[in-house]
Design brief:
Blueprint (H helix, E strand, L loop, with lengths): L7 H14 L3 H16 L23 E2 L2 E2 L3 E4 L5 E3 L4 E7 L8 E6 L5 E7 L13 H4 L9 E2 L4 E4 L12 E7 L5 E2 L2 H5 L8 H7 L2 E9 L5 E8 L7 E7 L2 E8 L1 E2 L11 E9 L12 E6 L8 E7 L3
Antiparallel strand pairs: 1-2, 3-10, 4-9, 5-6, 5-8, 6-7, 7-10, 10-11, 12-13, 13-17, 14-15, 14-18, 16-17, 18-19
The structure holds zinc ion.
The site of zinc ion has 5 residues, from loops.
């Protein structure tokens, strides 16, 4: 029905592969056999179902999509439905942009090298189809490249970005073996367990800290200072500044702050964002909400440690 095959960067390569496979009947038969085999493959553990709550899907792996084939499963649910990490792992690739076939996407890679694509993440204000594409309405707080996540953690929100814009909102979900070959995720989805880390679990895994000062610079940008300490490890944590729901900058909280000593976790946990501005640059928009998110080191959840509203 629609043409949302997969990650754009590999489409070209796949199209070439498919053309070659059509050269002879023998090659076609071999390809069919390979498809059958991949339908039986699964990661060597039970995955967590990637969509929260009510959803539905049928097996459309291998169905024609333009010049190539559907290399995942489309899981249909209401726009904005939380998307769940299928496994413990690391966010290894993201796209925040909807002018391409896949739209907003993220790639989650487990520690064995299996990886998962989540495609068409939400780009609309709740209740609309406006395409505003706020970062925090596509991706959960703290989801950036390199972020560790835990199975069952909310990582994003289902939508219709990219070439799903004129279709029913759905998650296009792919599973790839270490090294890259795609498998049919149908079997793994049927066998998946339903699990969501609770808000309490998320809070327990999150760093604690503060955004202590939001000071307006002469050019209308804002200097934000504060501190953050991981809930589990005594190491510097990453912190991100969000303005009006969009991620603007990420830094590491590792400045010396002797006043933090009574907290018993060392003192190199201070951070400064010297010049936080609007998305794309320039002064902070009047009345915009500014927030600092502290990233969990081991995964399980990141949290907002302080917010302020720019003067009107
Ligand atoms: Zn799809």
């Amino acid at each position: 029905m629609h043409d949302d095959t997969t990650v754009d960067d590999v489409i070209e390569q796949r199209t070439v592969r498919h053309r070659r496979s059509r050269r002879t009947a023998v090659a076609a038969a071999l390809a069919a056999a390979a498809l059958f085999i991949t339908a039986c493959e699964k990661p060597p553990y039970q995955i967590v179902f990637p969509v929260s709550g009510a959803s539905n899907f049928t097996d459309t792996f291998g169905a024609p999509r333009g010049t190539s084939k559907h290399e995942g499963q489309d899981i249909f649910a209401a726009k904005g439905t939380p998307l769940i990490a299928a496994a413990d792992g690391t966010i290894t690739w993201m796209r925040w942009g909807t002018g391409v076939r896949s739209g907003n996407l993220l790639q989650l890679t487990d520690d064995l090298g299996w990886f998962y694509y989540y495609i068409h993440l939400n780009n609309d204000t709740p209740g609309t189809d406006d395409g505003v594409n706020r970062y925090d309405q596509a991706f959960a707080d703290g989801i950036t490249i390199g972020q560790r996540v835990k199975a069952g953690e909310v990582i994003g929100y289902l939508g219709d970005s990219g070439d799903a814009e004129l279709t029913t909102p759905h998650l296009h979900f792919e599973i790839h073996k270490p090294g890259g070959p795609v498998i049919n995720p149908y079997g793994a989805l049927l066998d998946a367990r339903r699990f969501e880390r609770s808000p309490a679990d998320r809070a327990a895994a999150s760093p604690f800290g503060a955004a202590e000062a939001f000071v307006t610079n002469p050019d209308g940008t804002v200097r934000i200072t504060g501190w953050a300490i991981d809930a589990i490890r005594n190491e510097p944590v990453r912190v991100s500044a969000y303005v009006a729901g969009n991620l603007i900058a990420t830094t590491t909280a590792n400045f010396e702050r002797t006043d933090l000593a009574p907290r018993g976790r060392g003192t190199r946990h201070g951070y400064t964002f010297p010049t936080i501005g609007a998305r794309g640059g320039g002064p902070i928009p009047k009345g915009a909400e500014m927030c600092v998110v502290a990233h969990s080191i081991e995964g399980g959840g990141s949290s907002r440690i302080g917010c302020s509203t720019a003067p009107k």
